[in-house]
Amino acid sequence: MDGRAPLLRRTADLAIDYMSGLADRPVGRPVDLAALRSSLDVPLPARPMDPETVIADLAAGVAPGLVASAGPRYFGFVVGGGVPAALAADWLTSAWDQNAGLYALSPAAAVAEEIAGKWLIDLFGLPAGSSVGFVTGATMATFTALAAARHAVLERAGWSVEDDGLIGAPPISVVVGDEAHVTVFASLQMIGLGRARVHRVAADAQGRMRLGALRETLAKIDGPTIVAAQAGNVNTGAFDPLESIADAVSGRPNAWLHVDGAFGLWAAAVPELRDRVTGLAGADSWTTDAHKWLNVPYDSGIVITRHAAAHHAAMTLGASYYVETTGGERDPYNWVPESSRRARGFTIYAALRSLGRDGLADLIARCCGHARRMADALREAEGVTILNDVVLNQVLVRFAPRDNATSAEIDEFTRKVILAVQQDGTCWLGGTTWRGMGAMRVSVSNWSTTDADIDVSAKAILRCRAAVAAEAIPA
Ligand SMILES: *Cc1c(COP(=O)(O)O)cnc(C)c1O
Asked: What is the 232 CA–ligand 1 centroid distance (Å)?
C-alpha cells in the first residue's frame, strides 16, 4: 500500500506509547509557551516533506504541551477520556473518512447513528421515536435544541421562523435558571433570542432552580415560552427538580422545556441514580455530551428531541417540512447544523456496545463513588470545607489557612492551594467561584480512574495545602 502502511504502523506505536505513559506522566504542569511555539514554528516548507518525519516531529514538538486530560487523574472542568473501543473506532473513523452528512455519502455512518441514537433514547428512558442529532458538543446540542424549540413555539403562534426570521415575529419568553451553563446563553445569543433577554429564576444553595420562583416567573408571562432547565450543575453536580418543572411547563398552551444534561443526563442510565432525574422524559428536548461521561474521544455531543418534525424543520437544508427519504433512510444532516462532517456515530456505537448497559452504569456510578471518596479524604483534614452535597461526580472544596480566617483570606489560600496542586502534577483540577466563594473544583469523569488514583491525589492536595500553609507562616 504505497508506503502508507509503515507510516500508519509507526503512528499507532506513537499513540500506544503516549497512552501507556498517560497514567504516570505529570498531569497538566505549567507549559513554557515560548518553547512550545518555537518547536512548532518552523518555516513552512516550500517542498513536500517525508510524512514519517512530519509525524515524528509533530509528536515530539507537541509533547510538552499535551495535557494528560485523557488520563485517570485529570479532575479539571468536566472531562472524560476514551474507553478502548471508542478510541479504536475513532481511528477507524479517520481511516474510513466517511462524510456523515448524507445517507448517500455513507449508509454505514447514517445507520450507526440511527442505532446509537436508539440505544441512547432507551438508556436515558426518553420517549421512543425521539429524534437525535450528533454534534460537536453540548454547546451545539443546546443550540440545535433551542432552534427546534424556537421553531415549535413560533409555528404554534402562526409564524415560520425559518422563512421569515425573528424580525417582526411574536416575542418568545425565555426562562432559565440562574445557574444555567454559559453555553445556554451562548446558544441564545446565536439563535437570536438574546442572552440577556431572559427571565432568570433564582437557584437554591446547591444551584437547583427554585420551583416557587419558576412558578412566579411563569405566572407573569404568556405567549410562546422556552424554559431551559439543567441536569447536573457544572460546579455542584446538582439537578433541577425536573418533575415539578415539567409539570409547571406542560400546563401552558405554548411552551417547550429543554434540559441541559451535558454530563448529568448519564445519571438516567444508572439504576441507583435514576431518582436524580425523575421527570426527565417530560421535557421536550435534551442535551448531552458523549465526550464527557460516555468517554469517547472529542468531539461528540448529542441532541435529542421529542418533536422530530420541529427538530427537522429547524435544521434541514431543504424544505421546512418533514420529508422522509424514499426508503426510510435517515439523512444525518437533517438533525444537526452542519452538512459535511465527521462520522461521530461510530465511536458512540462502539463505546455503548463495549460497555453494555451494566458497564455504562458501573462507569458512571464508579466516578460518583470516587468523588465521594475524594470528598471524604479531604474533609477529614484541618481547615477543609466541602461546599456541596456530593450527589454526583463533582466536589467543591475550600481551604482555610487557620481558624477565624476571613472569607477573602480563605479565597486567597484556596487559590494558592489550587496553583500548588497544578504545579505538583500528581493530578490537575481548577478553581471556580461558588456563591461568591473561591473553591477548588473536582470532577471525576474518566473511566480509568481507580481508588488508588483518588487516594494519591487526595494526599497530593493535602501535601500542597500544608506546603502553602508553611510558606504563609512568617519566618
Ligand atoms: C460541559 C458543559 C456544557 C458545554 O459542553 P461542550 O461539550 O463543551 O460544548 C454545557 N452544559 C453543561 C452543564 C456542561 O457541563
From this structure: 10
Amino acid at 212: G
Assess if residue 226 is contained within a domain. yes
Q: Which atom of ligand 1 is nearest to the CA of 263?
A: 15
> Is 76 in contact with 29 (CB distance < 8 Å)?
no
- Statement to judge: residues 117 and 55 lie in one domain: no
79, 181, 291: residue to mutate for ligand 1 pocket, most atoms within 8 A of CB? 181
How many A from CA of 120 to the centre of ligand 1? Answer: 18
Predicted confidence band of residue 320 (pLDDT cuts 50, 70, 90) = very low
Ligand 1 pocket, CB under 6 A: 78, 137-139, 181, 183, 232, 234, 260, 262-263, 289, 301
Per residue in 158-181, pLDDT tens? Answer: 999 999 999 999 999 999 999 999
Are 276 and 146 in a shared domain? yes
- Between the CA of 77 and the centroid of ligand 1 the distance, in Å, is 9
Calculated CA dihedral for residues 284, 289, 290, 295, nearest 10 degrees: -140
Query: Which of 183, 188, 259 has most ligand 1 atoms within 8 Å of its beta carbon, as the pocket-test mutant?
Result: 183
The answer on 239 and 287 residing in a single domain is yes
The total number of structural domains in the chain stands at 2
Same domain, 290 and 338: yes
Label residue 127 exposed, middle or buried (CB < 10 Å: 0-12, 13-18, 19+). middle
**Model-wide pTM > 0.85:** yes
Cα→Cα distances 222→262, 265, 282, 447, Å: 29, 29, 21, 45
Q: Within 10 A of 256 (CB to CB), how many other CB atoms are there?
A: 28
Structural domain ending residue among the three candidates 300, 318, 352: 352
CATH of residue 339: 3.40.640.10
pLDDT tens figures, 201-222: 999 999 999 999 999 999 999 9
Question: Which residues, in sequence order, are bridge partners of residue 304?
Answer: 132, 286
Residue that is last in its domain, among 329, 352, 375: 352
234 Cα–ligand 1 center, Å? 8
CA of 190 to the centre of ligand 1 (A): 16
**Straight-line distance from the first to the last Cα atom of the chain, in angstroms, rounded to the nearest whole number:** 69
